[in-house]
Amino acid sequence: MSRFIFYLILINMMTSMVSLTPRILISGSGSGTILSLVLALIIGIVMTYILVSLFSHFPGLGLPEILEAYAPKWFAKPILLFFGLAWYTAGLFTLTIYTIIIIRFLTPAMSLYTIVLTFVIVVTFGVFMKAHNILYMSEIIFVVVVPFIVFIQMKGYFSRDLNWDYVRVALMEINHLPDYGAFTSSLFIVVGTANLVIFNRVFTQLKKPTGKGITLLGFFLAYVLATTYFLPIGFTGYDAIKNTMFPWIMTSDSIRMKFGVIERIVFLFIGSFLALGVVSIIMHWHVSIQLLSSVLYSERFKWKSFNLTSPLLIVIFWAVAMTVVVKITTDGLFKYVSMFDNYFTPALLTLLIFCLLSARKGAASKWRKSKK
């Protein structure tokens, strides 16, 4: 399995660690979060195997090309439109969450518009990069940032301030049936493979996952899911953290580097995740732009020889994003993220697998006819 698929999955997972996912998991801690994590891990690995295997039958093709070849237009266009809006919404949530984090913990005196404008410049440049360049950029940032994040997490695990009794109490909840909200939120973490709807264009020789690759991926997924949930609880306990919007920010502020240049690592920690967050937004919106352009592309939107469909879409993206970031509250954001995880994530994955299975069946049928 290509290393870039690991990056697609792990960047999506790690970006969620400081978002609202930990709060959603902790809010369901008394009603089956543990089994939800286990179930999401198993189903996430199975879905990763299925999606990579299905996309391997269409080397070098994104979902727009696959549906164009094997599905009628009346079916393909609504599907691509739905997927494009879903990917945009996922990126919008990440943008909004990280904007709130920056204002609340890093630069409370800075204007909201200045922060969003900074995102506009960086993300817009990244969105219009070629898919393979985005993957190479994600690799560089992943290699630079993730070792530091893992180092901080290891310091957390070996810290004297970590109360393992809190972790044991959390583990005792294993006798509860899975919580649907915690399950879908965990499932969203592990489905970065779905970005292959566009990034599969880069993989002209995509191979099916091997047992070694799936085992390694399962280890990483289990580590991230367990760390996302248990470490914040271990530092503060249920009572102190259950109403906290960003549990991992509080946790990172509890970890010290006694002999480091900067003792409080929360600022470096947020900065590291901010880099991953920008990459995640770029990936989501690049996928969204490509999907929506395949549906809304028009020869009328031309200036000289340059088609303006994608630039017009990015202008709409930022107009909507600015409005949402300015008007939404943290409680409203939590509500909408939970709704997206509960309803759109399962529907999106189910629909994607259905489309690929149907396209594979159509491709096999065409191959048999050509042999005759």
TrEMBL record:
InterPro entries tied to this protein: Spore_GerAB
Query: Which UniProt keywords are listed?
Result: Germination, Membrane, Transmembrane, Transmembrane helix, Transport
TM regions (residue ranges): 5-26, 32-58, 79-103, 109-128, 140-160, 180-202, 214-235, 265-287, 308-328, 343-363
Describe its membrane topology: Multi-pass membrane protein
Tell me any Pfam family this protein matches: Spore_permease
What are its GO biological-process terms?
spore germination
What compartments host this protein?
Answer: Membrane
Q: Which family does it belong to?
A: Belongs to the amino acid-polyamine-organocation (APC) superfamily. Spore germination protein (SGP) (TC 2.A.3.9) family.
Q: Could you identify this protein by its name? A: GerAB/ArcD/ProY family transporter
- Native species: Sporosarcina thermotolerans
